Structures are given as structure tokens and as C-alpha cells.
Amino acid sequence: MSVETKLPFNQEYIQAFSKDRNEPGWMAMLRSKALEMADSLDMPKPDKTKITNWNFTDFQHSNKEAVKITSIDELPEELRAYFDDDASMENLYIQRNQTAAYNSLSQELQDKGVIFTDIFTAMNEHSDLVEKYYMNDAVAVDQNRLTALHGALMNGGIFVYVPRNVQIKEPLQAVFWQEDTDSALLNHVLVVAEEGSSVTYVENYISHNDTEETVANLVTEVFAHDNAQVAYGAVDNFAAGTTTYVNRRGVAKHDARIDWALGQMNDGNTVSENITYLMGRNATSDAKAVSVGRGKQTQNFTSSIRQFGKATDGYILQRGVMKGSASTIFNAIGKIEHGATKANSEQESRVLMLSEKSRGDANPILLIDEDDVTAGHAASVGRVDPLQMYYLMSRGLEREEAERLVIHGFLAPVVAQLPIESVRKQLTQVIERKVY
Amino acid sequence: MSSTVLEIKNLHVSIEDKEILKGVNLTVKSGEFHAIMGPNGTGKSTLASAIMGHPNYEVTEGTIKLDGEDVLEMEVDERARVGLFLAMQYPSEISGVTTSDFLRSAINAKREEGDEIPLMNFIKKLDWDLEYLDIDKNMATRYLNEGFSGGEKKRNEILQLLQLKPDIAILDEIDSGLDIDALKVVSKGINKMRSDNFGCLIITHYQRLLNYITPDFVHVMMQGRVVKSDGPELAKRLEAEGYEWIKEELGIEDEETAEQNA
């Protein structure tokens, strides 16, 4: 039995919502079409995970206005840990529920034409620019029912635009804080790096609804034009009550690079797709992700790099730790299209099981339609090596401490990639909390 | 400092239901260096592993006591904290954990909470020991034993010995696979530990290590037992004449299936 498929939102509601935000006509149209499609499209079908009984469609879409924030001190303790002590609050966006509560971009970057603003303001002030990228070439509205639903009901997000040849050294940080425990978050992150530019962007999702049930439906689209470089870091930390669908996609042109470092630390059921299209010659992507599963949560992670351009390089690295009766599937898909000569596709997925009842699976998939390429894969699912434990304990470390070291060591190749020190620390703390 | 006594009595040890040790008796006290020699497969490494509590070895009979306390009742980490140390023949590789982070955790594991070693003291001592053992400083920031050469792993074991300062150390074939320069450095490290407060059990296949470390006692193990004990001159005779004369003297006959690498 599947859940009731009738959607609880109609065209009038959506048009009013759009009008409230003063959205351009194309966006109102996109929402309307998306809603039409949503009813007839299929749900996504993550490999080896049954999601027919998960609730992705029945939620509150109310928009609670949240109070603005003027300093870090106004944030709860839990959130403050995301910032360095001497954080300047510059180049920072904080979204409280669906409202832009804080937004700052240095004068220098503003002068260079960098845009770093909430998605609604962006649609008003840079309508043509947003329209060009929004749900076109990366994530399509009609990909599945959830992307259509996202298109229809998007209620938050950010737009990052880096003009030609602008190199941003300091990272841009976004914090999406879902303070309200009831309403759903349909967040859209759009990052555009023009030719020869570079940017590091790091985001955090946080919620507190351990028991109240709600939905997160997230879409990220990243565009790296010729010679551009985008480093994208994330720590997803939705509470147990949130069922999450997160779809992060990147498109890299000639000599462009998109690197991902994703800390997938949700406590609720999660389906995550991270797909990068290497369209131009010499484009590169390094997609790294870690996850810790606990309790009864079920998760499905797909990390995929599709290589169309010649001499492209794709690297996928996934690491997962499972405890309790958590169940997680890791799919790594390297795809080399016909014509992508001299392409290289590498992947490694490893899962560490800490309990008898947890379940983990790593599926290495290579799909190659070209002869002149190189590719490699490695996958393993196993328990903590008793000989490693013996070695560490023989130096006086207690069992728990020895296990902690082994786990941190196991996740280190991904954690170390997160570009902001405070976020890296935060991820380490979240890992610690989830593991013990 | 008080003197420490490790006392092994009638120790029987099996691996996968196969008895390797068949009644070992041995006592090691602070201030003493003991060498255990013997042909391959006579149970030397099994003895070392059983003392430390290797998960694959089962003690079926006998006792191991440290200052009267039952070592066999202790978890592996407790054995370390009461003063035992085993330099392993095949140390594990721990990815993602740097040698220096690990060492600091291990040092602090022996100290009370709130009395952790100050970072600067730790770094100073570590630098000093690295230099003493002629180890590249980079090793401290490399992942523990990961990608280390055989020689580097052995030096790392001795580095840990110097850093952790146990009361009784067991060195399991610390000389295997070392060239002569590395052997000298490793011996230098072990000799540095020599004091009235430190006892050592050196397991070796070859006499050559004992050219650099002079033991007070030499024991010969055969077929799962200590069959002969004497002073350092015994090692020299073994080097010159091999083990046959002991077999003849004691009337030991070769077992039909010699167990290799036990």
C-alpha cells in the first residue's frame, strides 16, 4: 500500500504564495506547472531502499515569520558552535525557518559584483540571471514527484553568484535553521560560478523536531563555467522527525572543478542524491561524503559522477558508520559517456558496522560507454577490526576510546575536506554525539 | 620506585583448539633483561600474545600474575595500565589517526583525568625521542603505521616504549627484518630503558640482537615449554652450535608436525 497520493495544495494557494513574495512571472508559471506535474509523476526510486511508506508529501507549508538576528549571541548554544569564536559575521547568511534572518557580504565582494542573498530577493533583483539556471539544466522539475513538489512549493534558499574571474578566498557560509518544528522546508540553493572564478560555499541544516514529523525537500544546483572552481561543503543535521529528500547537482564546463564534502548527519529517514555532470574537457569532480546512521533510521545515499567531456576526472569517496538498527545503502555510480575519451572514474565506498542489528550496503557501479578510459572501484562493509582494537588497547586505551579513534580515523578522509575549521569541528562533534 | 614481578606459572595456551604452550614457567623482575630463544614454531610469540591478551589466544591452564595480581582477569587495556607493554611483531595500521595523536591519548590513558600531559611537554619529549631513534619527524604526523616500512614500524614500537615507560616490556621479534643500522638504533632505544625499575622479555630468533643488548638470562623454548635457562653465554653457544645439542641433552624428539609461526 502506498500513502495517499493526493497533494494537499492547490493552484490558488501556490499563486497566492508566489504573489506574496512578489515573484516574477516565470517563477509563478514554473510553480504552477510543477504542481500540475506533481500529481502524475512517480516518486524517486532509490536503489534497494523502499520508500513507499515514507511521508514526503503531507506537510504544513505555513510560513512563520521569524525574528531577525543581529549577533551570534542571539542564537541558541547549539548553533553558536557552528561559528568560530572570533567569527566576523561577514559573508554569512542565516535563515530562520523560511525567513532571511541575517545576511552579510563584505563590501569588497559586493563591489566585485558577487551576489549572496536569499532566493526571493535574488528572483526580484536578478530575475533573468536566476531564471537562466533555476531548475533547468541541473535539477529538472519533472525529474520525479519530489522535484516537482519542490518546484511548486519552494519556500527558502539562497543564490550565490560569482562574476567572471572573481576569486573569493574566504568561504561563504549559510546556516538554514529550522526553528519551527512543524513546517516543512523546501530549500533551494543555487550557485553560479562564471568563467575563471572560484568560490567556497559551506552550508548547515539544523532542526530540533525529535518527535514532531515534518519534511525537508532540498535542491542544490551548482554551475561551474569554464575554468571555474567550486568547493561545496555541507553538514546536514535534521532531527529524527524530519524525512529528508536532498538532491544536489553540479554541472562543470571546460577545465572546471566542483568538489563536494558532505556530512550527512540527519537523524531521520533520508534519501540523498549527489550527481555531478562533467560536461567540458578536463572537468573534475571530487565527491566526498560521510554518514553516521543510528536508531531506527533508514537512509539511501547515491553519489554519481557522469562524464561527458574528454579527459574528465571523477572521484567518489563515501564512508559510513552504522549503529543501532540503522540501515543505509551507499550507491556510487561512475558513468563515462560515449566520446569521453581519456576520462578517469574512481570510486571508493566503505561502511563500518558497530552493532549486530545495523545494516549497511555499498554498491559500486561503473557504467562505461567508451573504450579509451581508466576506471577503478573499491567497496567494503565490515566491522571494527579486532586486531586494531587489540593494538590500541595494548597501549592502555579503553575500549570505547580505541573505538572512537578507529571511527574518527575511518571518517577522517572526508571530514578533513570540509573547508571551514569551525564547521569541521562541528561535524566532528556531531559524529561524536551520534556514535556515543 | 617499587620493584615489579611478572610471574608466569604452568601456562597452557591454545589457538583454535590447538595447544601451543604446554606449561610455561617464567619470572621476570624489574632490573632484569630476559631473552627467549628457540626454533620457529615453538610458541615464543604465543607467549608474548597471551601475556598481553591477544583475542585469538585462549589460556586453558596456569596463571600470569603481576605483583600478585591476576593478569588473566584483566582486559587488554588494564594490562597496559598496570605496567605491561608488548612491542608487536606485526603492529596494526590505523588509518586516519596520527602517530602523535595516538601517543598522546595513550600517555593520557595512564594518567588521571585533569592530569593530562601538557601539550608542550609532550611535543618536547616526542621530538627528543624521535631524534634519539633517528626517526624522521614527519612520522609523528603520519597515520599510525599506515604505509610504514617494516623498519619504521619497529622503530615506532620502540618509540612507544620510550614514551609510555612501562614497568615490564615484552619485545616480540623486534629485530626481524631490520638492517644492521636499524638494529643498532632499536637496541639503543631498548638499552636506554635499562634501570632498576624496568624489566624486559626479549623474544628473538637470532642471537645477533643480543650482541647489542646483553641479557641477564637466556631461556630456550621448545615444543611449548621453556626447556633450558642460563646466563648470556647460552645465547652464544646457540649461535655457534644451533639447537640440536639441547635436544640431545634433554632427549627431546621432533614432533611429527612442527607448527610454524605459532
Would you write up a description of this structure?
The complex is a heterodimer of chains A (436) and B (262). Helix content of chain A is 22%, strand content 38%. Chain A has 436 residues and is an alpha/beta fold. Chain A has one domain. In chain A, the strands form 2 sheets. In chain A, strands 2-1-5-7-9-11-13-15-17-19 form a 10-stranded mixed β-sheet, covered by helices on one side. In chain A, strands 3-4-6-8-10-12-14-16-18 form a 9-stranded mixed β-sheet. In chain A, a hairpin with a 2-residue loop joins strand 1 and strand 2. In chain A, helix 1 (11-20) runs antiparallel to helix 2 and helix 5 (119-125) crosses helix 6 (127-133). The mean pLDDT of chain A is 92. Chain B is of the alpha/beta class. Chain B is 32% helix and 25% strand. Chain B contains 8 helices and 10 strands. Chain B has a 6-stranded mixed β-sheet, with helices on both faces. In chain B, strands 2-1-4-5 form a 4-stranded antiparallel β-sheet, covered by helices on one side. In chain B, strand 4 and strand 5 form a beta hairpin. The chains are: A alpha/beta (436), B alpha/beta (262).
How far do the termini of chain A sit from each other? 36 Å
Q: Give Rg of chain A in angstroms.
A: 21 Å
Overall outline of chain A: globular
The CATH C-level class name of the domain at 5-91 and 165-250 in chain B: Alpha Beta
